[in-house]
Amino acid sequence: MRLFSLAATAAFLGLSTGIFAQDGPRSEPAKVCVAVVGNASTTSAFVEHLTERLVKSLKQNKVGAVAMDSSTSSRYPLQLSKDNGHESQQKNCDYLLLTQIRDPRQHLLEPQAPQISIGGRVPSVDASDPMGGSSGPVHRDNLEVAFALFRIGRFKPVLDTSVLERPSANVSDTLLPAMDHEANRVDHELKKH
After folding, report:
1. This prediction's pTM
2. In this predicted model, what pLDDT tens digit does every residue of 35-58 receive, in sequence order?
3. H/E/C letters for each residue in 31-69?
4. CATH of the domain spanning 29-130+139-192, picked from 3.40.50.10610, 3.20.20.370, 3.40.50.300, 3.40.50.1820
5. How far is 37 from 5, CA to CA, in rounded Å?
């Protein structure tokens, strides 16, 4: 009888710890695969540099971020590709992050995600700007950085939004703060799940 009681207690404890392990908070951060930033705009940008910054910013936020070799597709709304799916499975990721630079003027008729505006359309007075300075201020339109966070195994993103950023002469450097804003938004979303 005593042996049965010990076995029942051990089974109950094993079962209950299994339940708590699944329902409780994760002891390790979610692993996020970060696809190479896609550029669907006519503006040149160093997408590898932007991807590195995004991964670095996520890691600073204590998110387990891993850079991928596969890129974000040029399609919009953002969708997973076969390459993204295979690579994220190989890297055992919980989430997959897609990022795309877009020029809103080029895609006026496409559906727009909710936007976070950083800065506005103002003249460039950067002395290094070949279009500014002596020839007078130049108006530069905002670029949009669209991003979507997918939970592995699901086709609908848990986060789908964009950030507007005003470019300067060096667009890649201008978009670095947008990568930081994206990382903060992704971190905030992961804390809810």
Report:
1. 0.71
2. 999 999 988 889 999 999 999 999
3. EEEEEECEECCCCCCCHHHHHHHHHHHHHHCCCEEEEEE
4. 3.40.50.10610
5. 58
